[in-house]
Design brief:
heterodimer; A: 10 helices; B: alpha/beta; 6-stranded mixed β-sheet
Chain lengths: 264, 225
């Protein structure tokens, strides 16, 4: 609650934590209800997607005789797509759907977006962990060679997804065109995102273009961590971090502008 | 202390910019109250939304030195798939209050019975209003925002609201907006009139009342939407 003196940072962080917790609980019940699996759908839904894609890719023999097992290739690839795509998908319209909550003084536009981002990242992460354990257990996936690198790649993808979601979510409040353009863009970016190929398989010219896309770096890093030197990888964490940093600032600026534009 | 300083609000319409509030300023100390009279479309509800923080002013600023409520009995933030209890929990989490000690009060006031644990989806309008009002009372505020048009119910409900608000919490500040001059006379120590986006102050409630009644009778204009 605001007082005449500026509240301390610690106090503000406490409020932030409370509000996000409240919004998360509310969103979970709203989205998944209490019937059947309930909150487990948060993880089950992306798992079903990933399983379906893994099945299709196995049937299509998509891995070009690569030494990576196809199931492991599909799980690492499609889980990465979920990471950068789903938050942005869910953030469009989030402000309009939740603006009534802004009547509670401490709930701000940024909180509404952060809630959706946290849920999507949590769901995709849960799905990735469960599937990895499952397939490692039955022997279709190897254990990660370098867990730290896997985590690093995963966190970079999460950062990219979150900053993209801020831009799309706040941008939609500005103009619906943003959301209309985002959906075809996401669809077209999927085949280019590095989920279904390794950069090394591509001709040198194509590699240069593909590596302009930040998420390609994340997927490559994730796979290097998972499969080690079996596959040559191409990525630049510095480049990806720079892109994420710029996107984050643009996103936060848009969020501030969108907060001023909320109308009833 | 709540201070509204030179607050203006402009909305973009298809016919250009429309100033709904222009240069509104006032202060409200702890325990004080203010009635704001205005016809439909005068900008009362916009002012309430700005003070609650749901919308931000186009220019000017609002300083809140005390805990200001959300508009009393506002139920728009109810999520239909949540139960009454879920909504209580949500509000308590947002404001950092333990919900458990509040359950008896909310259950007793709302008279929802088993419906307190059913989705809000199945509530009647009256049940929704009672729940919304009870939640407003469950959280401690120093200043209540009351949009009279929102607190609609039967006589019994009004009596109970009256007791909760003006007897049990008579030490609190409040801002009451309404188009009904008699309500202001009944409850408020100070009154203003909102007219065409401006807030006009008067030395006494009587003066505001007379001015407003005069405006109402001399200006037989069609009601703005």
């Amino acid at each position: 609650m605001s007082t005449e003196t500026a509240p301390s940072l610690l106090h503000s962080l406490g409020i932030q934590r409370r509000v996000l917790h409240a919004l998360l609980m509310r969103e979970i019940i709203t989205r998944f209800g209490r019937e059947n699996l309930g909150v487990l759908w948060l993880v089950a839904e992306p798992m079903l997607f990933t399983l379906g894609v893994a099945t299709l890719w196995t049937a299509a023999g998509l891995h070009h005789g690569s030494p990576i097992p196809i199931v492991a290739f599909a799980v690492t690839g499609y889980s990465s797509v979920l990471m950068w795509r789903n938050s942005a998908n869910r953030s469009g319209g989030a402000i309009a759907q939740n603006k009534q909550l802004l009547f509670h003084r401490n709930v701000r536009v940024l909180d509404v977006l952060l809630t959706r981002i946290a849920l999507e990242i949590g769901g995709a992460t849960g799905s990735f962990i469960v599937l990895s354990f499952l397939f490692t257990f039955v022997g279709w996936m190897p254990l990660p060679e370098d867990l730290l690198k896997v985590l690093c790649g995963w966190r970079m993808l999460a950062w990219f997804g979150a900053s993209l979601a801020l831009v799309i979510g706040a941008g939609t409040a500005y103009s619906e065109i943003v959301e209309r353009l985002w959906h075809p863009a996401a669809y077209l970016l999927f085949p280019l995102s590095g989920a279904a190929f390794m950069v090394d398989w591509m001709p040198a010219n194509a590699q240069k273009v593909l590596l302009l896309l930040p998420m390609v770096h994340g997927v490559e890093m994730l796979r290097e961590g998972y499969f080690g030197s079996v596959v040559p990888t191409h990525y630049d964490v510095g480049y990806m971090a720079s892109c994420c940093l710029v996107l984050s600032f643009v996103g936060l600026y848009f969020v501030r502008q969108a907060s001023r534009r909320v109308e009833f | 202390m709540l201070a509204i300083e030179h607050v203006s609000k402009v909305y973009a319409t298809r016919h250009g910019r429309r100033e709904v509030l222009s240069d509104v300023s006032f202060r409200l100390g702890r325990g004080e109250n203010l009635g704001i009279l205005g016809r439909n479309g005068a900008g009362k509800s916009t002012l309430i939304r700005l003070i609650s923080g749901a919308e931000l002013p186009t220019s000017g600023r609002i300083l809140r030195g005390m805990r200001v409520s959300w508009p009393l009995a506002f139920g728009g933030a109810f999520q239909t798939h949540l139960t009454g209890l879920d909504n209580l929990k949500f509000v308590c989490r947002v404001y950092g209050v333990d919900y458990k000690p509040l359950v008896p009060f909310v259950e007793e006031f709302t008279e929802l019975g088993i419906y307190f644990r059913e989705p809000v989806l199945h509530y009647s309008h009256g049940m929704l209003t009672r729940l919304a009002f009870a939640l407003s009372m469950a959280i401690e505020f120093d200043c209540f925002l009351i949009d009279e048009a929102m607190v609609v119910g039967d006589v019994r409900f009004h009596e109970r609201c009256h007791i909760e608000l003006f007897h049990k919490r008579k030490d609190r500040a409040f801002i009451l907006v309404t188009h009904d001059a008699n309500v202001i006379k009944l409850y408020c120590k100070n009154a203003c009139v909102m007219h065409e986006g401006r807030l006009l102050s008067f030395p006494t409630v009587e003066a505001a009342y007379d001015f407003y009644q005069g405006k109402m009778s001399t200006h037989a204009e069609p009601v703005e939407s």
